[in-house]
Each structure stands twice: as C-alpha cells, then as structure tokens.
C-alpha cells in the first residue's frame, strides 16, 4: 500500500509540475516557481510517507485534488484568444441539397513564413461532382511523424483540403508535450491546396507525399460532411488539442470509422509517418505493387517547388501519383 501511494505521489508530482509549467501565467524565469514549488511539496509528501508524517502526504493529496478540480472543471477551451493569423478564423459550413457552402476557407498567398496576404473566402462546392479523396503527408524531420491532410477533389477542378491543426496564440511555440497539457485549442481548417499544401513544401521546406484513397461508394461524401460537421461544432463548442487523443490522424480515423465501421486500430495511427503502410494493408491504395513504389511516385516535393504559378500547383503535384489518371 505504501509503495502504491508513493507511486501515485511521484506520478502526481510529475504531472502537476508539467501542468503548472505549461499553464503558468508567469513569464521568464518566474515561470519556474509554480512547478518547482509543486515538486517541493511532492518531495516533502514522499518524505512524510517514509517517516510516518502522514499529514504531509494528506496535504499533498488535498492539493492534488484541488489541482485536478481546476484542471477538469476550471479550465475551459475558448475561441476568444489572440490567435496567430493562420488560424484566426473558424471554418464552418452548411449543406443545401448537393451544394456545400463553406465559410472561412483559407486561401493565403504565401511569399515567406511571415510574409503573406491573408485571404478568408466563402466557397461553394457541388457534392454531386465530388470525384476524389487524397491523403497528403507532410514530413519535417522524423520519418515516423507527419502531418496528415485530406484533400477532396471535384470534377470542376476545385480542391478543398481539411487539416486538423493546433490553434496557436501569438508568441506560442509548438511543443508536442504541451499538446498533452491543454496549451492549444483544436482547429479543423478548410483551405485551398495552393495555400496549405504549397506553404509546407515551398515555404516551410517540408517533404510532401500524396496518396489517392479508394473508398466505397458514398463514403467520400460522408467523410467530407463529417469534417464539415466537426469544424462547425468547434465554432460553438471549442475543444483542446491533445497530442495523443485529438490530433490530425486520430481524428481522421474517428471520422473514417463512422463511414467504414470496423477499421482496425493500429500503432501507425499515432506514428502518422507510417500511415501508407496502414492504408496499403486496408487495400485503400491502388496503382502500384508496393508501399515503396507508392512513396517514390507519390513524393511531390520537387514538383511542388518547381511550380511557380499557384494555379498549376494541384495539377503538377499529381503527376505520376499511383491511382491517378494522367
């Protein structure tokens, strides 16, 4: 029992210190004070447990209960913060028959990482002309981790990309650990390919791969409308981003599973860089006889960087991609 209590104190001490670090209202070196004080209290509680001063352990338990109450009851996600421009607005939409109207579709013109013209547009799409679903994976360093974006193509030449993003405030730095500790809100953002795909390859220097996804009849429409519904609900009910449970690939899985029930869970849903192997196992890829062949032909980075006119971007990145007709 004592060992179990000690383990709980260690876990509570580490979790509380990280929570206070990422949610501290203090800046600079003062930011260290709350987590250091918390670790001091946890250490005193462990010492009290070892020396039968149980009142110290009880005090830590009460403080941990108060911290958990603040965490789960006091902290609330919000849409009213000083956001960076890229996620300043929330995509939302409505359907009238076959016509999907999306508000706040991002279509920035990027010249550099901080040099851009901000454009938020209202666009309409004819769902009867929905023709394709493509998965784009964008890598920035580690082969196991990639950002997943889903692009829906229409027979009239339009593409709309949905991306699950962290909604960062100004002066926020990205932290995967911070994503476990409610540092960011969640955004489901619609954009043009000339914006969200092009900025990653041509401005941020990321490495892009495209995969044509084959789905049962009717599933692409359901998947698209699931994205629209999720994005629209976030306008009314904001949520926190979570690195493990509410990120770009886990939300893709949850939406797809509603359409094709019984999709198997797999570690590659978390290690998103290996999603092509998962899709190959499901039979969702066609046009090549191995995952390696898909990767080689689906890599569009060089074609993207050679494209100077954004109007040619969508066509050029699809050249030679397996499963896509010339």
Strands ordered across the widest β-sheet = 9-8-7-6-10
The average pLDDT value, as a whole number, equals 90
Query: What count of helical segments does DSSP give?
Result: 10
Percent of residues in helices: 25-40%
Can you count the beta strands?
A: 10
SS-based class: alpha+beta
Major β-sheet profile = 5 strands, antiparallel
* Rg calculated over all Cα atoms: 23 Å
The ordered string of helix (H) and strand (E) elements is HHHEEEEEEEEEHEHHHHHH
The span between the termini is 67 Å
Shape: elongated
The proportion of residues in beta strands is 15-25%
Poorly predicted runs: none
Give a concise summary.
The chain is 39% helix and 20% strand. The protein has 326 residues and is an alpha+beta fold.
Give a structural overview.
With 326 residues, this protein is α+β, with helices and mostly antiparallel strands. Helix content is 39%, strand content 20%. It contains ten helices and ten strands. The strands form three sheets. The protein has a five-stranded antiparallel beta sheet, with helices on both faces. A hairpin with a 7-residue loop joins strand 6 (130-139) and strand 7 (147-154). The protein is elongated and about 75 Å long. The model has no long low-confidence stretch (mean pLDDT 90).
């Amino acid at each position: 029992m004592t060992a179990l209590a000690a383990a709980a104190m260690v876990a509570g001490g580490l979790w509380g210190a990280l929570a206070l670090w990422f949610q501290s209202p203090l800046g600079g070196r003062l930011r260290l004070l709350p987590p250091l004080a918390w670790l001091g209290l946890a250490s005193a509680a462990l010492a009290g447990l070892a020396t039968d001063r149980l009142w110290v352990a009880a005090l830590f338990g009460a403080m941990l209960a108060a911290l958990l109450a603040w965490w789960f009851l006091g902290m609330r996600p919000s849409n009213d913060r000083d956001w960076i421009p890229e996620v300043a607005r929330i995509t939302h939409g409505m359907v009238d028959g076959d016509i999907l109207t999306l508000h706040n579709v991002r279509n920035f013109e990027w010249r550099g990482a901080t040099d851009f013209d901000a454009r938020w547009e209202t666009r309409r799409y004819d769902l009867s002309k929905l023709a394709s679903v493509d998965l784009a994976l964008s890598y920035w360093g580690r082969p196991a981790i990639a950002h997943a974006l889903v692009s829906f193509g229409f027979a009239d030449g339009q593409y709309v990309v949905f991306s699950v993003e962290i909604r960062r405030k100004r002066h926020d730095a990205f932290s995967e650990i911070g994503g476990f500790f409610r540092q960011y809100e969640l955004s489901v953002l619609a954009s043009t390919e000339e914006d969200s795909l092009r900025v990653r390859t041509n401005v941020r220097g990321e490495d892009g791969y495209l995969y044509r996804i084959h789905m049962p009849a009717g599933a692409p429409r359901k998947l698209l409308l699931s994205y629209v519904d999720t994005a629209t609900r976030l306008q009314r009910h904001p949520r926190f981003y979570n690195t493990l449970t509410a990120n770009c690939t886990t939300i893709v899985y949850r939406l797809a599973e509603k359409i094709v029930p019984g999709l198997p869970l797999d570690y590659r849903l978390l290690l998103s860089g290996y999603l092509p192997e998962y899709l190959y196992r499901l039979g969702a890829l066609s046009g090549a006889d191995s995952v390696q062949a898909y990767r080689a032909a689906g890599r569009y980075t060089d074609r993207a960087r050679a494209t100077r006119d954004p109007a040619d971007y969508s066509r050029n990145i699809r050249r030679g991609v397996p499963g896509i007709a010339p």
